[in-house]
Amino acid sequence: MHSCYFIRDLFYHAAGKPVETNEPPRTAVQNLFHWGRVVFSLGVLCFALAVTLEALFNGKTTMWEFIPNGVAVLLFVLLMSVVGLLEGMQIAFFAVAKIPKAERGDHPFARKTCELLFRGKGRNLPGFM
Distance from first CA to last CA of the chain, Å, rounded? Predict the structure, then answer.
């Protein structure tokens, strides 16, 4: 979703750095369409979150009846966090696959993760995905 561009730009702005891109600078029309898509994407995202939370708090879900609505919301947040972590790991693993082995870093946890991912002629990476 285009709302990710907004978050990226916020982090660049907070760090005090210009946005780095290989694309030429946007024209005024391109800038208008870009920010229009960002605003529309944020609107859809907020609406979807509002509808989901409304349903969770009102018990209008398929959650078991003995689970309180507040716990259902906490489970939703927990599971969405897990999905976000898995998505981030997927992006990172594909990025690491393009980096030569000598440049992958020397932290023990990173080294063990790469060894596990690329063991067996690299078949573990597609298996994880």
Answer: 21
CA distance 122 to 115: 9
Phi, psi of 99 (to 5 degrees): -90, 135
At 77, list the tokens.
């947040």
Of 48, 71, 52, which is closest to residue 60 (Cα–Cα)? 52
How many CB atoms neighbour CB 43 within 10 A? 11
What's the rounded Cα separation, in Å, for the pair 96 and 48?
A: 33
User: For 81-100, what is each residue's pLDDT tens digit?
Assistant: 999 999 988 888 888 888 88
pTM (two decimals):
0.69
Q: Which residue has the tokens 């959650």?
A: 63
Number of Cβ within a 10 Å radius of residue 59: 12
- For residue 99, the tally of other CB atoms under 10 A from its CB is 11
Written in H, E and C, the secondary structure of 24-39 is CCCCHHHHHHHHHHHH
